[in-house]
Structure formats: C-alpha cells, structure tokens
C-alpha cells in the first residue's frame, strides 16, 4: 500500500520535473502551457491507474495534484481539456445517484471560480498563483472528504475522530504536495525569466558597446585609452589617421610615452603619469604635422575610493579655430590702422604740403651745390606721402567702384612698367597669359596696384640674374594670378606673419605692401596664398571668384 502511495506521489511530481528539464531554453516559452497541460494529463491518467482504497476505506487518488497544476499553468484551453478528462474519469467511477449530485454541485461551484482566476493568472504575481492553487486544493479536499464521509453505510460516531484525522492527513498531504509542485514550477519560470533578462541585458550591453565604439572611432577627436600602468589599450581611427602610416598593432600595448614620440610631440613631460599619480584633469597644446591640438587627460575610475583605473586622452584639432582667431586679430589690427589713417591723414598731409612747397621754393633760390640736399628732403617727403597713401588703402570701410575688366588687359598695360623696373635690376620677366580669359568685376586702379606690389616684391627677393614669371589661369569658377620668383624664399615662421601690418623682412620696408595686397584681394572677394621654399623661390597665388559663382 505504501509503495503504491509513494508511486502516486512520484507520478504527481513527474510533470514538474520533466518541465524543469525540458524548459531550459527561452525559445521554448511559447510552448510551456501545451507541454505542462499534456504532462499533467498523462500524470492524471497514471495516478488513476495506481489509485487504491485503504483498509479504512480511504480512496488514495493523487490525480488532483497534476489537475490543479495543469489548470493553473496550462491556460484556458488546456484547463478545459484537463477538466473534461477529469470529469469523464470521475463519472466512470460513480455508482450512486447522490455521488452524481455531489459531483455536479462541486462543479457548479468549482468551475466558475477557478476559470475566472485562470483567465487573469498571467497578469498576477507568484503569490496570486499560490493563492489560486490553495483555493483549488481546498475545494477538491472538501469534495474528496464529502465523498469519503458519504460513502460509509455503517457509520459509527465512535470512529468519527479517526475519520476526521485521516481526512486531515490526506488534505494536508494533498495541499503540501500541490504547493511543492507549484513552487518548483515557479522556479522553472524564474530561471528562464532570469535567462531572458540576462540575454536582453547582454544584447543591450553589446549594442551600447557597438554604438560607443562607433562613436569613438568616427568622432573627429583623437581618442586614446590607457590602463592604470600607462599602457595603451585602445586608439580610435582618427588618431591613427593623424599619426600617419603607423598601424594599430604598433600602438596597442605600448606606453603612452611611445605614442607621444610617434606623433613627434614637443611635450617634455608625460601627462599620463601625472594623472595616474592622482592629479585631476590636465590640458596641453600639442603640435602634430603642422596642426594644433588642444588635448585633455582625464582619469578613468569606476569607484572613486579605489583610485584611477586608467587615463582617457582626447585631442581636439583647433587649427582652424586658431587660424580664425589669428584672422580676427589681423582684421582688428587692420581696422585700427584704417582708423589711424582716417584720423591723421589730413593732420599730416596739410603741413607736409606746406613744407614741400617751401622746400621747392628754397631749392630754386639755393646755390647749385646745395640743391642735392633739398632734393633728398623732397624725396623723403614724397616717400612719407606714399606711406600715408598706403595707410588710406588699408581702411576696411573703404568703398570702391568695380567695373568689368580682363586681367590679361590689365597686365599688358603694366608690362612696360614692370619690364623697365626689371631692366634696372638686370632681371628678366616671363609673362605667360591664358588665351581665353573671362571678365571679372574689379577696380582697375587697385588691381594694377596689387600686380605692381607683388611684382616688385618678387624682384626685390631675387639677385640681378633672377627671372620673374607672371601667369594667369582660367578655371571653371575662378581666375588665378601667379607671381613666381626664384629668389631666396621665405621660412615657415615668416610665412605665418607675412600679411601682418608693419611686419617686414626688408631693411627699409614699412610692412604695409603685402597687407595692402591682402586688403585689395579681400575687397574683390578673392584669396591669396603663398608657397615658398628657402633657397628656391616664392609663389604668390591670387584667386578671384567669377561673377555669379560661389567659390568659398
């Protein structure tokens, strides 16, 4: 008898154990209600096969345990199927009318309550499912006990305590086994839920990591990660692009100081070491391939109390910003020069005109041997007047009148003057004009002044055997003027300050010639560019945008 009872208990646990073995992958979630319903149906049939009656008239039948588990977790369709199986098997075991009446009364109460709970069971927590299982067990225990007590034909009051004790033991055992099955079923669901949550978190983590990696690699910043020993662990694509042909394999695993040597930095100290020693965010200006970078060294730490886990190096290319800043400074200086020119021109020109007039008068009345001295004074006055005119030309608010003109025609007008200047210096002028030249909107007087200034600068930079080449080129959107000399050239340091007012490399220069040229070019919506090699010569490239075109 006890062996049969133990076998029924094991069969009651069978659906739960098979479910825990089968339900090992999240992909099987959609079939759990079908599997549990079928497994519980098989367990019900096996328990009915091994059901037995004890010597005291107790009907040991544990088919109700898989019935409760299957109806709770199998959903409405499987619960209805299990109920049909249960009703059919129970009706085949009844022999008296009162048993049918009792069973019908049980179904009238049990079915509406249980199915109303099952329809919403997926919306509630584990506690609610345990509550539903307890209600179902209590109702089944009451039905079983009612069937048990009504089955006695020779009931004696003296045996009542024994029958009540047996009924309580059966009820407690039935409820305990059912709740244990519910507990293990819930463990199976929780395990898969944890797997699903872990998979979702892992997928989100990988997705965020890919996004972060793409952001780091595609950001227009130089990014380098170092560990707590100063060893490079990651370098983005922008950093590799800026340092040239050095591959990622040569960078990773190397000290950050090696990275600084590769990029030919002028930094004398390794800022990474300072950050690893506990210093806060550090900044530094680095020079790389002629460009300027504003760099930041930041400590990386997950938990502040555990020190620094590494260093993040970020480099921002501020070359254009620096160029714009220099351009603004230059414009401010030009504006100041223009204001000075506008304010002092009349104050200086008037007394100079008076002085020049009296000098000429004295020159006419002086002796012949003294006239050379007056001529020197007159030349210096003319030179001072020319400087004042250059001041006036640099005024930023100057309004000029433009008219259609051909750059080749302007050059042909100036060729005799340029040739005369070159002959005096023993130099040669090589004129190469484009045959088909488009018309520009220019101020002819200023354009001639621009050409003369650039030509004379080129001739002054050459010796008596120099060749000055003047070219014109006609492109799709622009017209280009090139003035090329084979003189001494200009160093990189001087090139950066070449167009600054009052900056000159000549002994008697004023530093206003090229500043004036730049002012003229900008007023004509053009750009001027200088290419020079020390010892080989210099090329001034002036580009003018054609009317109706958007060049820059």
UniProtKB/TrEMBL annotation:
Regions crossing the membrane: 34-53, 65-88, 100-120, 132-150, 162-184
SUPFAM superfamilies: ATPase domain of HSP90 chaperone/DNA topoisomerase II/histidine kinase (SSF55874), Homodimeric domain of signal transducing histidine kinase (SSF47384), PYP-like sensor domain (PAS domain) (SSF55785)
Sequence ranges assigned to domain Histidine kinase in this UniProt record: 343-544
Catalytic activity field: ATP + protein L-histidine = ADP + protein N-phospho-L-histidine
Coiled-coil region: none
Record keywords: ATP-binding, Kinase, Membrane, Nucleotide-binding, Phosphoprotein, Transferase, Transmembrane, Transmembrane helix, Two-component regulatory system
A Pfam family: PAS_4
Enzyme Commission number(s) from the entry: 2.7.13.3
Domain of life, per lineage: Bacteria
A GO MF label: phosphorelay sensor kinase activity
NCBIfam families membership: sensory_box (TIGR00229)
Protein name: histidine kinase
Organism this protein belongs to: Cohnella lupini
């Amino acid at each position: 008898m006890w062996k049969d009872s133990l076998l029924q208990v094991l069969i009651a646990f069978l659906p739960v154990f098979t479910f825990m073995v089968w339900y090992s992958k999240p992909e099987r979630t959609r079939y759990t209600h079908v599997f549990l319903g079928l497994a519980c149906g098989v367990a019900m049939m096996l328990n009915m096969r091994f059901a037995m009656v004890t010597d005291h008239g107790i009907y040991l039948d544990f088919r109700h345990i898989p019935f409760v588990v299957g109806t709770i977790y199998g959903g409405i369709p499987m619960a209805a199927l299990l109920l049909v199986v249960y009703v059919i098997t129970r009706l085949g075991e009844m022999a008296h009318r009162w048993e049918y009446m009792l069973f019908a009364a049980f179904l009238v109460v049990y079915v509406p309550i249980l199915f109303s709970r099952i329809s919403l069971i997926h919306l509630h927590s584990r506690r609610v499912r345990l509550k539903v299982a307890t209600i179902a067990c209590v109702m089944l225990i009451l039905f079983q006990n009612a069937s048990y007590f009504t089955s006695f034909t020779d009931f004696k009051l003296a045996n009542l305590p024994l029958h009540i004790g047996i009924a309580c033991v059966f009820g407690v055992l039935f409820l305990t086994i059912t709740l244990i099955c519910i507990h293990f079923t819930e463990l199976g669901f929780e395990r898969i839920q944890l797997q699903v949550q872990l998979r979702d978190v892992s997928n989100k983590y990988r997705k965020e990591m890919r996004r972060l990696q793409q952001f780091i690699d595609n950001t227009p910043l130089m990014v380098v990660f170092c560990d707590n020993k100063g060893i490079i662990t990651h370098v983005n694509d922008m950093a590799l692009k800026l340092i040239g042909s050095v591959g990622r394999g040569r960078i990773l695993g190397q000290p950050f100081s090696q990275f600084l040597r590769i990029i030919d930095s002028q930094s004398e100290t390794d800022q990474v070491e300072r950050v690893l020693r506990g210093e806060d965010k550090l900044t530094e200006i680095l020079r790389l391939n002629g460009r300027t970078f504003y760099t930041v060294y930041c400590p990386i730490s997950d938990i502040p109390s555990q020190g620094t886990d590494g260093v993040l190096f970020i480099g921002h290319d501020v070359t254009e910003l620096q160029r714009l800043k220099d351009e603004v400074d230059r414009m401010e200086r030009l504006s100041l020069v223009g204001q000075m020119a506008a304010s002092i021109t009349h104050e200086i020109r008037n007394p100079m005109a008076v002085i020049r007039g009296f000098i000429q008068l004295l020159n006419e009345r002086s002796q012949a041997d003294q006239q050379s001295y007056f001529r020197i004074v007159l030349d210096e006055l003319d030179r001072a007047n020319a400087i004042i005119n250059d001041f006036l030309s640099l005024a930023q608010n100057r309004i000029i009148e433009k008219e259609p003109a051909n750059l080749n025609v302007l050059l042909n007008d100036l060729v005799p003057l340029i040739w005369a200047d070159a002959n005096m210096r023993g130099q040669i002028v090589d004129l190469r004009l484009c045959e088909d030249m488009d018309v520009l909107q220019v101020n002819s007087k200023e354009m001639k002044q621009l050409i003369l200034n650039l030509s004379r600068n080129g001739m002054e930079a050459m010796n008596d055997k120099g060749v000055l080449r003047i070219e014109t080129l006609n492109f799709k959107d622009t017209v280009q003027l090139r003035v090329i000399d084979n003189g001494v050239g200009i160093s990189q340091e001087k090139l950066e300050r070449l167009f600054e007012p009052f900056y000159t490399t000549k002994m008697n220069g004023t530093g206003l010639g090229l500043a004036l040229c730049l002012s003229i070019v900008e007023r004509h919506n053009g750009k001027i560019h200088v290419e020079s090699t020390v010892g080989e010569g210099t090329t001034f490239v002036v580009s003018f945008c054609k009317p109706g075109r958007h060049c820059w």
